[in-house]
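SEQUENCE-TO-STRUCTURE ENTRY
===========================
Question of interest: how does this chain fold, as expressed in backbone structure tokens?
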Amino acid sequence: MPVEMRMWRIDGQEARPLTAAALPTESELHEFLKKDPSLLGTALLVIGSEVITPFGKRLDLLAIDADGNLHVLELKRHRTPREVVAQVLDYGSWVSTLSREDVIDIAEKYLGQPFEASYEGVFGSAPPDELNGELQLTVVASALDMSSERIVMYLRSFGVPINAVFFTYIEDDERRYLARSWLATSDERTSNSVAKSTSKRATWNGLDWYVSFGGERSWDDARNFGFVSAGGGKFYSQTIRALSEGARVWVNIPQTGYVGVGTVTGPAVRFRDAQVRVDGALVPLEAQSLGGSYTHRDTEIDDDAEWVVPVDWIRTVPVNDAYWEKGLFANQNSACKLRQEFTLERLARRFDVHSDAE
């Protein structure tokens, strides 16, 4: 049945009904959502307004959430409810095909700055490697007729990620309030209610890797003796061991920034077996005077042990000169493929290194 929003103010022992006022114009509601999409109840970054589609129509608002999923927001305007449902489905069929590069291009044209910086400004982290993995379609209206509500609920039962949100203005003397309600709650979605996109992951160039180096480890040790290391559990050890000879590694110290780039010269070995070159001779790493404690250096279980990867440094900087800016890639893994173009371009410029495989 149609959604009706009613509110009452409690005056002593009496409940006084508040009067529903006329909604603002559709353009005003559009501006409200464009400036503060959290009115929909979740953190969103608007990446497009009046987005021109390949078939000549204009999508009202396109937004992205903290998981990198896109949200199509379509206002009812002066169309019939059935027309707006059909329109949002049409837009969804196009948006679902957008590649990662398409999403970034749309966002940067609208935002006027790098997408990654805008994303981190809203969500506090760099965007995920995969964008547009899922899609949500939302009809924004003051009300829908019963027939249109049945259509929306029927589509949801078949896994179409569509919903309708209703905004009502309430007046109370000199004050006005904006109330929101949803046609369906999130738990009413079926298990297959995800619209998958056809593209998603940025292409990896086959060369560049991200390495996180921190904790009880010393960056001065790593610079002086030519290595990176990680350990303390399978989550950390299995990724650092994935580095192979010839990989180019970009090293980030968490909460600090990027400090170096180099080429892996051999396989990962346990700390106690690692050798480094000093004055032209190979010597045990653990026999050197080290600034880091490397807590797991003597752990017997391979998954929990500290693993060392030899690196021939191309360029490094001391910790005090670490490089960071909004939008740069960061990850909890000790090592992973670095495919984010924004980060590669910025790092290549900063460290004067070609960003692509030659």
User: Anything to note?
Assistant: The CA atoms of residues 156 and 162 lie 6 Å apart.
